[in-house]
Each structure stands twice: as C-alpha cells, then as structure tokens.
Design brief:
single chain, alpha/beta, six-stranded parallel β-sheet, 8 strands, disordered N terminus, disordered C terminus
C-alpha cells in the first residue's frame, strides 16, 4: 500500500453500488439488532430474578411511537474522531501491521480532527487499509478484538451531549440506530455498548466466517447512508417524516433530508450553512467552538497532530 495513496483522486461510485451497500447494511443491521435485543432481554430477565422475580418499574411512563426512530452518524457526531482510525490503532497494538501504517493512521486522524470534516478520499484510503489488514482473519476474532478496542480507545470519546439525545429517543420508546461508514461489526459493538437498537455500517464480504478483503457494494458513505436508512425504514415499517437524523457532515445531507427532524451536530461549515438555510436544529458540543466558527484553534490543531505522532512513537517504543 502506497504511503501517499490517499492523495490519489478517485471517481465517485455509481448509484447502483450505493443502493447495494445500503441494502446490505440494512439487512446486517436488522440481524444484529435482533441479537442485541435478545441480549438485553436476557440481561433484564437476569436482573429481575436477582430482584426477586419482579422487573423494575420505569421511573417515568414512556409513550412510544412505533412509527418513529432516530438515526445517528458516528464519527464526530456520537464519538470524537473516526472509529476506523481508533480501530486501526488497536490493531497495530496487536501487531496486525507495521509502524509505517500506524503513522499513516495517526496522520489521517490528526487531519480529521484538524479539519473537523470527513474527507471521502481520506476515509476511503483508511477503509482500503483496514480491508487489506483484516483479509484472511475470522469475523469472530475481529469482533472479540473490537470489544477490547472500544474499551481502550473509544469509550472515553463519546460526546455526552449526543449520548443524551440518543437516550432521550430511547426513553421515548423509539429505536435508535447508528449509521456509519465504519465496519458494521465495529458499529454494532458501539451500539451495544451504548444500549442502542443496532447499527448500519459498511459490510465487508466474508466467506465461511473469514474476511475476503472485499466490500459488499461500497462504503456506507454519503448517498449510501440515505439508501440504508430508506431500506431499513421500509423493512421496519417506519414513517420517515416522523423520524430524526443526526450528523456533523455535509456528506450526510442526503440522509438528513430523508427525515422530518434533521439535526446538525458539531457541524462542518457546509452543513452549518445548509442547516441554517433550512432552519434545521443545530447542536455543538465541541469545547471552545462557537456558532460562527468551525474548526479548532491553531494551538489545538498542532496538539492534535503532535498527539498523533507521539502516539505512534510511544507505541513503537513500547513494542521495542
């Protein structure tokens, strides 16, 4: 893999591939949500047995809307930074790849934090790297490692404000889904840890439980996210006009435009303008960021870049 491969322009994927990726993500999300629901039911039953066989009463009565749901982007909306970069750092720690690939991940993560936006070419390059790294490994192995990586690098990066918004939907009796370009396995782990319904994510091809290094369709990014939400809403019998969606990126305008209640969370410049023009609701949970300014202060930007480099060096020393 070329060290500067992310600088090479790529053509946008065809709409048909976006539809395929969206439908594959929706199918995977429904399967994993059933698994998560069974796990939660089992935990609730166990808690009820511990309490003497009586399930705990809800603190407040909840009025559910079976036709509504909420869809949350992950990177920089629910979690600071990009999940794929945190996952890459965790794989490096486990010697899945070498130091030069870690330096590449560190630079991409620093750029992502500095710019405050998703760059399709950077994200595509990171996913290509991840696919080549996991090729030949078992899905079950990566799921187990993903649980550890969440605890190590992701748990402390969840935005409390966005987490509260998701919980508000859950408390209202609505289903809550993550919608992300991150691998569906990683997204499902995060959804389970946050108590969400499930996740729509990029589906990597596997045969007999082993990754082939290919995707089903394309990464779940931009229009593909909208297709995934549309497919899932149809399968779940949802009314999109009654649903809500949350994102930080203008790349997710197609998804946000599908629902009746779009929210711009920690928005990039283009999304902020688009949201204001259409009177969408905005929330910004980034420290020191004002409504009129997007990006991070110069000192913080230097710190992000230095931090990424320092992380690479520190991990290399630890290995030695």
């Amino acid at each position: 893999m070329a060290a500067l491969g992310w600088l090479t322009p790529r053509r946008r994927s065809a709409t048909a591939r976006s539809v395929l990726a969206g439908e594959a993500a929706a199918e995977a999300a429904r399967k994993t949500s059933l698994q998560l629901e069974r796990e939660r039911e089992g935990a609730a039953a166990e808690a009820a047995d511990t309490a003497g066989g009586k399930p705990a009463e809800p603190e407040f009565p909840v009025v559910g809307d079976s036709l509504a749901a909420a869809f949350f982007d992950l990177d920089n909306t629910v979690m600071q930074g990009a999940a794929i970069f945190h996952f890459g750092r965790g794989l490096y720690k486990r010697k899945f790849f070498q130091r030069r690939e870690l330096a590449r991940f560190a630079w991409q993560q620093a750029w992502f934090r500095l710019a405050g936006v998703e760059d399709p070419e950077h994200m595509q390059d990171a996913r290509d790297s991840a696919l080549s790294i996991v090729q030949g490994h078992r899905v079950a192995e990566l799921m187990s490692i993903g649980e550890e990586i969440y605890d190590e690098y992701m748990a402390d990066r969840i935005w409390p404000g966005t987490r509260a918004l998701a919980q508000a939907h859950l408390d209202a009796g609505q289903k809550v889904w993550l919608v992300t370009a991150a691998p569906v396995e990683t997204a499902t782990i995060i959804a389970r840890r946050l108590g969400l319904t499930g996740a729509l994510g990029t589906v990597a091809e596997s045969v007999d439980g082993v990754y082939t290094g290919k995707l089903v369709g394309e990464p779940l990014h931009g229009p593909a996210k909208a297709e995934a939400v549309r497919a899932l809403a149809a399968a779940e019998g949802l009314d999109l006009a009654r649903c809500a969606a949350y994102s930080d990126s203008h790349n997710d305008i197609p998804m946000l435009s599908l629902v009746g209640h779009p929210y711009a969370i920690n928005p990039d410049t283009k999304l902020r303008k688009h949201a204001r023009d259409r009177e969408w609701r905005l929330r910004d949970y980034r420290t020191g960021r004002k409504a009129a300014k997007v990006g991070i202060p110069a000192a913080a930007g230097v710190g992000a870049l230095a931090g990424g480099t320092a992380a690479a060096v520190a991990l290399h020393r630890r290995r030695r």
